Amino acid sequence: MKIAIFNDNRLGIVAGQKVSDVTTTADWDQTKPHESLVRLMENFDSLKDTLEKAAQEGKQYDLEEVVFRAPVPSPSKIWAAPVNYKKHQEEMNKQFNNAPRTIEELALFLKAPSSVSGPSDPILLPFKDRRTDHEAELGYVIGKKAKNVKYEDAKDYIFGYFALLDISIRGNEERTWRKSFDTFTPIGPWIVTADEIENPNDLSLKLWVNEELRQDGSTKHLIYDCYKCLEVASTYSTLNPGDIIATGTPEGVGPIRDGDVVRIQVGSVGEFSVNVKFADEN
Prior knowledge:
Pfam families: FAA_hydrolase. The protein has 282 residues and is of the alpha+beta class. It has helices at 33-42, 44-57, 86-95, 103-106, 175-178, 226-236, and strands at 2-6, 10-15, 18-21, 60-62, 78-80, 109-111, 116-117, 123-125, 132-134, 136-142, 158-165, 168-169, 185-193, 204-209, 212-218, 244-246, 254-255, 261-266, 270-278. Strands 1, 2, 3, 4, 5, 6, 7, 10, 11, 13 and 16 form an 11-stranded mixed sheet that branches.
Protein backbone atom coordinates (compact mmCIF):
# COMPACT_ATOMS: atom_id res chain seq x y z
CA MET A 1 0.00 0.00 0.00
CA LYS A 2 1.18 3.50 -0.83
CA ILE A 3 0.22 5.90 1.97
CA ALA A 4 0.37 9.63 1.28
CA ILE A 5 -0.30 12.91 3.03
CA PHE A 6 -1.55 15.55 0.60
CA ASN A 7 -3.05 19.03 0.32
CA ASP A 8 -4.14 20.23 3.79
CA ASN A 9 -2.76 17.12 5.54
CA ARG A 10 -5.36 14.77 4.12
CA LEU A 11 -4.71 11.02 4.12
CA GLY A 12 -4.47 9.32 0.76
CA ILE A 13 -3.93 5.88 -0.73
CA VAL A 14 -2.11 5.88 -4.06
CA ALA A 15 -2.78 3.33 -6.78
CA GLY A 16 -1.50 3.82 -10.30
CA GLN A 17 -1.93 7.46 -11.29
CA LYS A 18 -4.67 8.16 -8.75
CA VAL A 19 -4.79 9.08 -5.07
CA SER A 20 -7.91 8.22 -3.09
CA ASP A 21 -8.94 10.43 -0.18
CA VAL A 22 -9.40 8.23 2.93
CA THR A 23 -9.14 11.02 5.50
CA THR A 24 -12.36 10.01 7.28
CA THR A 25 -10.89 6.61 8.17
CA ALA A 26 -8.17 5.53 10.61
CA ASP A 27 -9.03 8.25 13.16
CA TRP A 28 -7.05 10.71 11.03
CA ASP A 29 -6.69 14.24 12.42
CA GLN A 30 -5.52 16.78 9.82
CA THR A 31 -4.32 19.14 12.56
CA LYS A 32 -2.03 16.41 13.95
CA PRO A 33 -0.74 14.48 10.93
CA HIS A 34 2.29 12.94 12.61
CA GLU A 35 0.35 11.68 15.63
CA SER A 36 -2.27 10.35 13.22
CA LEU A 37 0.41 8.55 11.19
CA VAL A 38 1.84 6.91 14.31
CA ARG A 39 -1.64 5.76 15.28
CA LEU A 40 -2.21 4.37 11.79
CA MET A 41 1.08 2.46 11.86
CA GLU A 42 0.41 1.00 15.28
CA ASN A 43 -3.01 -0.26 14.14
CA PHE A 44 -2.23 -0.97 10.51
CA ASP A 45 -2.94 -4.70 10.57
CA SER A 46 -6.50 -4.12 11.76
CA LEU A 47 -7.00 -1.05 9.54
CA LYS A 48 -5.65 -2.40 6.27
CA ASP A 49 -8.92 -3.83 4.96
CA THR A 50 -10.81 -0.68 5.96
CA LEU A 51 -8.28 1.52 4.17
CA GLU A 52 -8.41 -0.59 1.03
CA LYS A 53 -12.21 -0.41 0.97
CA ALA A 54 -12.17 3.34 1.61
CA ALA A 55 -9.68 3.78 -1.24
CA GLN A 56 -12.09 2.05 -3.63
CA GLU A 57 -15.04 4.14 -2.51
CA GLY A 58 -13.42 7.50 -1.74
CA LYS A 59 -12.96 10.54 -3.94
CA GLN A 60 -10.07 10.12 -6.34
CA TYR A 61 -7.66 12.67 -7.78
CA ASP A 62 -5.02 12.50 -10.47
CA LEU A 63 -1.55 12.64 -8.95
CA GLU A 64 -0.92 15.94 -10.75
CA GLU A 65 -3.96 17.51 -9.07
CA VAL A 66 -2.66 17.28 -5.51
CA VAL A 67 0.25 18.61 -3.48
CA PHE A 68 2.05 15.84 -1.63
CA ARG A 69 3.40 16.60 1.83
CA ALA A 70 6.20 14.88 3.73
CA PRO A 71 4.79 11.39 4.42
CA VAL A 72 6.49 11.42 7.83
CA PRO A 73 5.83 14.96 9.09
CA SER A 74 7.65 15.20 12.44
CA PRO A 75 10.04 12.39 13.39
CA SER A 76 11.58 12.58 16.83
CA LYS A 77 14.93 11.78 15.21
CA ILE A 78 16.63 10.96 11.93
CA TRP A 79 19.51 8.51 12.01
CA ALA A 80 21.63 8.74 8.87
CA ALA A 81 24.34 6.49 7.44
CA PRO A 82 27.65 8.12 6.44
CA VAL A 83 29.95 6.64 3.75
CA ASN A 84 27.80 3.54 3.30
CA TYR A 85 28.87 2.78 -0.29
CA LYS A 86 32.48 2.01 -1.23
CA LYS A 87 32.33 3.91 -4.51
CA HIS A 88 30.98 6.99 -2.72
CA GLN A 89 33.96 6.78 -0.37
CA GLU A 90 36.27 6.63 -3.39
CA GLU A 91 34.74 9.70 -5.04
CA MET A 92 34.89 11.73 -1.82
CA ASN A 93 38.55 10.85 -1.35
CA LYS A 94 39.29 11.71 -4.97
CA GLN A 95 37.60 15.12 -4.70
CA PHE A 96 38.22 16.14 -1.09
CA ASN A 97 40.42 13.46 0.51
CA ASN A 98 37.98 13.52 3.43
CA ALA A 99 36.57 9.98 3.66
CA PRO A 100 39.25 7.75 5.21
CA ARG A 101 36.64 5.66 7.04
CA THR A 102 33.32 4.04 6.20
CA ILE A 103 30.20 3.48 8.28
CA GLU A 104 31.88 0.45 9.85
CA GLU A 105 34.01 2.86 11.90
CA LEU A 106 31.87 5.99 11.81
CA ALA A 107 28.54 4.39 12.83
CA LEU A 108 25.47 6.62 12.32
CA PHE A 109 24.89 10.35 12.84
CA LEU A 110 21.82 12.44 13.63
CA LYS A 111 20.11 14.97 11.37
CA ALA A 112 17.76 17.59 12.75
CA PRO A 113 14.09 16.50 12.47
CA SER A 114 13.29 20.06 11.40
CA SER A 115 15.24 19.44 8.17
CA VAL A 116 12.39 17.25 6.84
CA SER A 117 10.46 18.69 3.91
CA GLY A 118 7.99 17.32 1.42
CA PRO A 119 8.29 16.20 -2.21
CA SER A 120 6.58 19.40 -3.37
CA ASP A 121 8.78 21.80 -1.37
CA PRO A 122 11.90 23.53 -2.71
CA ILE A 123 15.39 22.94 -1.38
CA LEU A 124 16.54 26.24 0.15
CA LEU A 125 20.26 26.94 -0.08
CA PRO A 126 21.44 28.91 2.99
CA PHE A 127 24.76 30.07 1.48
CA LYS A 128 25.63 31.52 -1.91
CA ASP A 129 29.36 30.87 -1.50
CA ARG A 130 29.36 27.26 -0.25
CA ARG A 131 29.14 24.05 -2.27
CA THR A 132 25.92 22.19 -1.52
CA ASP A 133 25.47 18.64 -2.84
CA HIS A 134 22.65 16.22 -3.57
CA GLU A 135 22.68 12.70 -2.11
CA ALA A 136 20.02 10.21 -3.25
CA GLU A 137 19.02 7.67 -0.61
CA LEU A 138 16.48 5.07 0.40
CA GLY A 139 14.75 6.07 3.63
CA TYR A 140 12.36 4.22 5.88
CA VAL A 141 10.12 4.87 8.84
CA ILE A 142 10.06 2.92 12.09
CA GLY A 143 6.64 1.40 12.77
CA LYS A 144 6.96 0.38 16.41
CA LYS A 145 9.20 1.04 19.38
CA ALA A 146 12.59 -0.56 18.86
CA LYS A 147 15.50 -1.08 21.25
CA ASN A 148 18.42 -3.49 20.88
CA VAL A 149 16.87 -5.09 17.82
CA LYS A 150 18.81 -7.96 16.27
CA TYR A 151 19.58 -7.95 12.56
CA GLU A 152 17.34 -10.91 11.83
CA ASP A 153 14.37 -9.17 13.48
CA ALA A 154 14.91 -5.70 12.02
CA LYS A 155 12.47 -6.04 9.12
CA ASP A 156 9.61 -6.44 11.61
CA TYR A 157 10.17 -2.87 12.85
CA ILE A 158 10.16 -1.14 9.45
CA PHE A 159 6.72 0.15 8.50
CA GLY A 160 7.59 1.40 5.04
CA TYR A 161 10.00 2.99 2.59
CA PHE A 162 10.34 6.25 0.65
CA ALA A 163 12.80 8.22 -1.45
CA LEU A 164 15.02 10.61 0.53
CA LEU A 165 17.43 13.39 -0.37
CA ASP A 166 20.24 14.09 2.07
CA ILE A 167 21.32 17.61 1.12
CA SER A 168 24.84 18.35 2.28
CA ILE A 169 27.05 21.41 2.54
CA ARG A 170 30.71 20.53 1.97
CA GLY A 171 33.18 21.73 4.58
CA ASN A 172 34.96 20.89 7.79
CA GLU A 173 32.03 21.32 10.19
CA GLU A 174 30.35 18.33 11.81
CA ARG A 175 28.06 16.31 9.52
CA THR A 176 25.03 17.08 11.68
CA TRP A 177 25.48 20.82 11.16
CA ARG A 178 26.18 20.58 7.41
CA LYS A 179 23.14 18.38 6.78
CA SER A 180 20.50 19.79 9.14
CA PHE A 181 19.38 23.06 7.58
CA ASP A 182 15.69 23.53 6.86
CA THR A 183 14.59 21.59 3.72
CA PHE A 184 17.76 19.46 3.74
CA THR A 185 15.83 16.17 4.06
CA PRO A 186 13.15 16.05 1.38
CA ILE A 187 11.20 12.77 1.57
CA GLY A 188 8.38 11.17 -0.39
CA PRO A 189 6.39 11.05 -2.43
CA TRP A 190 4.61 8.53 -0.15
CA ILE A 191 5.33 5.59 2.13
CA VAL A 192 5.32 2.18 0.48
CA THR A 193 4.49 -0.33 3.20
CA ALA A 194 7.17 -2.92 3.86
CA ASP A 195 4.98 -5.83 2.79
CA GLU A 196 5.15 -4.52 -0.79
CA ILE A 197 8.96 -4.34 -0.94
CA GLU A 198 10.34 -7.82 -1.52
CA ASN A 199 13.96 -6.85 -0.84
CA PRO A 200 14.86 -3.30 0.20
CA ASN A 201 18.52 -4.24 -0.16
CA ASP A 202 18.22 -4.60 -3.92
CA LEU A 203 16.52 -1.42 -5.16
CA SER A 204 17.73 0.94 -7.87
CA LEU A 205 18.61 4.52 -6.90
CA LYS A 206 18.72 7.24 -9.54
CA LEU A 207 19.04 11.01 -9.40
CA TRP A 208 18.92 13.64 -12.12
CA VAL A 209 19.78 17.33 -12.02
CA ASN A 210 18.10 19.20 -14.87
CA GLU A 211 17.67 15.91 -16.78
CA GLU A 212 21.37 15.02 -16.36
CA LEU A 213 21.66 11.59 -14.72
CA ARG A 214 24.08 12.07 -11.82
CA GLN A 215 23.54 9.02 -9.61
CA ASP A 216 22.72 5.50 -10.80
CA GLY A 217 23.22 2.95 -8.05
CA SER A 218 21.57 0.18 -6.09
CA THR A 219 21.00 -0.59 -2.44
CA LYS A 220 22.56 -4.00 -3.08
CA HIS A 221 25.91 -2.20 -2.69
CA LEU A 222 25.20 -0.89 0.82
CA ILE A 223 27.94 -1.66 3.35
CA TYR A 224 25.40 -1.66 6.19
CA ASP A 225 22.12 -2.70 4.61
CA CYS A 226 18.69 -1.53 5.79
CA TYR A 227 18.47 -4.10 8.57
CA LYS A 228 22.01 -3.53 9.83
CA CYS A 229 21.37 0.23 10.01
CA LEU A 230 18.32 -0.42 12.20
CA GLU A 231 20.24 -2.83 14.41
CA VAL A 232 22.98 -0.26 14.98
CA ALA A 233 20.58 2.66 15.49
CA SER A 234 18.47 0.75 18.03
CA THR A 235 21.60 -0.14 19.98
CA TYR A 236 22.44 3.54 20.46
CA SER A 237 18.94 4.79 21.23
CA THR A 238 15.31 3.82 21.49
CA LEU A 239 13.63 4.21 18.12
CA ASN A 240 10.10 5.55 18.28
CA PRO A 241 7.31 4.98 15.77
CA GLY A 242 7.72 7.70 13.17
CA ASP A 243 11.50 7.93 13.41
CA ILE A 244 13.42 7.90 10.13
CA ILE A 245 16.55 6.08 9.02
CA ALA A 246 18.43 7.32 5.94
CA THR A 247 20.60 4.56 4.50
CA GLY A 248 23.31 6.51 2.68
CA THR A 249 24.11 7.51 -0.89
CA PRO A 250 25.90 5.83 -3.80
CA GLU A 251 28.48 7.45 -6.05
CA GLY A 252 27.66 10.36 -8.34
CA VAL A 253 27.22 13.04 -5.70
CA GLY A 254 27.53 16.56 -7.06
CA PRO A 255 26.63 20.21 -6.50
CA ILE A 256 23.21 21.80 -6.84
CA ARG A 257 22.61 25.45 -7.59
CA ASP A 258 19.87 28.05 -7.59
CA GLY A 259 17.41 27.26 -10.38
CA ASP A 260 18.17 23.53 -10.60
CA VAL A 261 15.54 20.81 -10.58
CA VAL A 262 16.49 17.63 -8.73
CA ARG A 263 14.64 14.38 -9.43
CA ILE A 264 15.08 11.23 -7.35
CA GLN A 265 13.74 7.79 -8.24
CA VAL A 266 13.84 4.66 -6.08
CA GLY A 267 12.83 1.39 -7.70
CA SER A 268 9.50 -0.07 -6.45
CA VAL A 269 9.05 3.01 -4.24
CA GLY A 270 8.52 6.14 -6.36
CA GLU A 271 10.02 9.40 -7.48
CA PHE A 272 9.68 13.14 -7.00
CA SER A 273 11.23 16.36 -8.26
CA VAL A 274 12.10 19.47 -6.25
CA ASN A 275 13.30 22.94 -7.22
CA VAL A 276 16.43 24.53 -5.78
CA LYS A 277 16.58 28.19 -4.74
CA PHE A 278 18.38 30.46 -2.32
CA ALA A 279 16.75 30.68 1.08
CA ASP A 280 16.67 34.47 1.08
CA GLU A 281 14.71 34.44 -2.16
CA ASN A 282 11.97 32.12 -0.92
